[in-house]
Amino acid sequence: MSNIKMLNKKEETDGDVEVSWVDQQRINEFSKYNAKIDDLEDQYEKVKQEKEYLDDVAMELELADEDEHVRYKVGDAFVHVTAAEAIEKVEKESEKLNLRLEDVKHQITIVQGKMEGLKKELYAKFGNAINLEKE
């Protein structure tokens, strides 16, 4: 089945809207925000996955004896610490990742708000002649 349809007369004339320099700047700004959203969403997923790995490590450490020495990675080296110390370090790292997740969510919300404002302005002027939706 074909998705091709004929444009009605009103839709045909909407394509003849002149693009001013200011309009082009708004379109470019929207495009930059769109790319930034993609980057932030990728960043969010990476931090979320790192948090999940850290939660798995915390569960494994809970099973270890508190006085038992475990290897804890610091940079590129491993250091022997007690399981209790490792749990404490993992909890602190987990808190940092939670804050990072909240920060990225906040940034995404801000950028989405700016994009919505630009969408309203651009759709008001260009109507069906412009497509700002993600596919």
UniProtKB/TrEMBL annotation:
<dbReference type="GO" id="GO:0005737">
    <property type="term" value="C:cytoplasm"/>
</dbReference>
<keyword id="KW-0175">Coiled coil</keyword>
<keyword id="KW-0143">Chaperone</keyword>
<dbReference type="GO" id="GO:0051082">
    <property type="term" value="F:unfolded protein binding"/>
</dbReference>
<feature type="coiled-coil region">
    <location>
        <begin position="30"/>
        <end position="57"/>
    </location>
</feature>
<comment type="subunit">
    <text>Heterohexamer of two PFD-alpha type and four PFD-beta type subunits.</text>
</comment>
<dbReference type="Pfam" id="PF01920">
    <property type="entry name" value="Prefoldin_2"/>
</dbReference>
<comment type="similarity">
    <text>Belongs to the prefoldin subunit beta family.</text>
</comment>
<dbReference type="InterPro" id="IPR009053">
    <property type="entry name" value="Prefoldin"/>
</dbReference>
<dbReference type="InterPro" id="IPR016661">
    <property type="entry name" value="PFDN4"/>
</dbReference>
<comment type="function">
    <text>Binds specifically to cytosolic chaperonin (c-CPN) and transfers target proteins to it. Binds to nascent polypeptide chain and promotes folding in an environment in which there are many competing pathways for nonnative proteins.</text>
</comment>
<dbReference type="InterPro" id="IPR002777">
    <property type="entry name" value="PFD_beta-like"/>
</dbReference>
<protein>
    <recommendedName>
        <fullName>Prefoldin subunit 4</fullName>
    </recommendedName>
</protein>
<feature type="coiled-coil region">
    <location>
        <begin position="87"/>
        <end position="121"/>
    </location>
</feature>
<dbReference type="GO" id="GO:0016272">
    <property type="term" value="C:prefoldin complex"/>
</dbReference>
<dbReference type="GO" id="GO:0006457">
    <property type="term" value="P:protein folding"/>
</dbReference>
